[in-house]
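TL;DR need structure tokens for one chain.
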Amino acid sequence: MILKPLFRHLSMAALALTSALSQATIVEFQTSHGNIQVNLHDESTPKTVENFLTYVNNSDYVDTVIHRVEPNFVVQGGGFKYDGDISLDPISTRGSVDNEPLWSNVKGTIAMAKVSGNANSATSQWFFNLENNSANLDLQNGGFTVFGQVIGDGMDVLEAIEDVPLCNSTPIENYTSEQCSNNDVPAYEDFVTIYNIVVVDSSTSTDGDLDKTPNTLINQPDPDDGGNGGSSSGGSFAWMSAVMLLVLGRRFTKK
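>> reply
TL;DR here they are.
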């Protein structure tokens, strides 16, 4: 007689916790170079935030690496782990999410990466805008969905990551251009690692006071589209990055 009410109480508590997580609006990227807090736009880009939090809540981003840095452009992650051997392993992905290009890709925002020619192809990968990239990313490939904004001193951390030496486009500490050319295997600790992404504020909405910039270009014709529905070659950077990274991973060989 006591177990049923107890079970019901625990179930309600679990449901409340799940609900809180699904409504999270501030998350913290805990990285090897410091923590980055991001205020998510869960009310204005709900599908994208729900998709992102599904990966967060399933710990899919734990021990993933920043696999691409383009100085003065983007820091990209959410796609790969380093297994210490031959290649970077792609994380498991779920179904793609509908594009929600409401906000502009200005400096300090986070957006979803996707495949060229498919505006609704975002899955797990995301990128931080290091500069104001609105002129191209707000328009290309249906526009890239901005779903959050860096707060606090998070940009300092991103700029530190931007300064890490690159092997092709992958940031690797204590790894020389000669080692990159010689295909030496990097150490795990030399990658820029996302140790975890955790919820720090699960309030229903916390972005009301943020200075959000609307995407004013999305309804304009994409000059690179060619009439094929937003398949701009510029929108392919996420896909090409993934291909590059897999090839780069196979270049690492043990000595």
